Amino acid sequence: MARFFYSALFYLLIPLILMRLLWRSTRAPDYRRRWPERFGFVPGIDQTQTTKTIWVHSVSLGETLASVPMIRQLQQRYPKAQLVVTTMTPTGSACVKNTFGDRVYHVYAPYDLPCAVNRFLRRVRPDLLIIMETELWPNLIHGCADQNIPVILANARLSENSARGYRRFAALTEPMLQCIDSVAVQHEEDGNRFLALGLPASQLLVTGNIKFDLTLDEPLRTRASQLRAQWQARCRRSVLLVASTHRGEDDILLDAFERIRQHVPALLLVLVPRHPERFDDVTQRCLTRGLNTVRRSSGKPPAETDQVLIGDTMGELLVFFGACDIAFVGGSLVPTGGHNLIEPAAWQVPVLSGPHLFNFADVSRLLLEAGGMAICKDAQSIASTVVGLLSDPDAAAQMGVAAKIVAEKNRGALERLLAVIERQPW
After folding, report:
1. 63 has catalytic annotation
2. Domain count of the chain?
3. How far apart are CA 259 and CA 151, in angstroms?
4. Do 203 and 65 sit in the same domain of this protein?
5. Annotated catalytic residue, options 37, 63, 133, 343
């Protein structure tokens, strides 16, 4: 009954949802495209050439990036299987296309309406659904259960705030969780919250965070080395990377940069907004401050006189981390919950962050305990920390080594997750 009322409300909200897509498309035009896919109108899959169809759903860019190593492993282990990868956002979609091209079947996931879900399942006919992190949709999960399609919640995390929200709708949440075949959580605390919401203990496994299992291969290291040489120019200047910023953070970080430049005038700031629709706005903020600014998409390396490089391309952030001296990870000066701290740690780069880290609570705790990370609350603390590290190369190197040790010690989650997938009856 709870799901009936949920579905009825969802149908009533469709006009507002479409209006929101139109509003978002004023900044990101891709939001006005491919609407039929969101209602399950997708091309059917010819399954005569495949043995199985594996559906991987990752809602946005962060989850998609985390899923890439897993998808590559699935392609190797099941070479005759059709991989279906869905997202909900244009940034996630662009990541799938740039990474896999036509080697996977990619469309937007259907909205959680019974008609859209059923239409999608009829056309795609998956044998297994793997949902990344915590994208829980009642009709989707019940639709898979009705058709005996196993569902795995992979690399799952559940903050206390999120758990509190699900508890408010217990009549909807508990039946949904009981339909999930396996929940592979990042940490024991996440698992306890799922159990408290009604997940049967037999369906819970603690596998760790697969984001630790990224691979920095030789071609990637070569690209990072070449990029670093471009950025340093002939003056061998230091590079501060500020990654994945959100609205409300850029001015704080630019204030910090201007303070840092009083001590390190040659420093290059590489500023990467999280969302493409903000590229123009952030560029203009830099120009308004009188900063010599160049955009990565121009194809021109920064000149010695350039002070800011705007990272306005997709899919390059991982190599950026390998080309900098210090990395500040955004989404953490505002209550967004932070972004991936593991990538700079894997590159042996000192990691800085703001205080809002509930999306990476365990990772940040490990890094802080090891001395591989520092939390900065405002422009003054960011500036003093960066100046201190640039003035003491030994301290910066020690911090980077500590971060890398954390990244190395926590690998192995991907293999454990793949074992969970292999055990499913699909």
Report:
1. yes
2. 2
3. 51
4. yes
5. 63
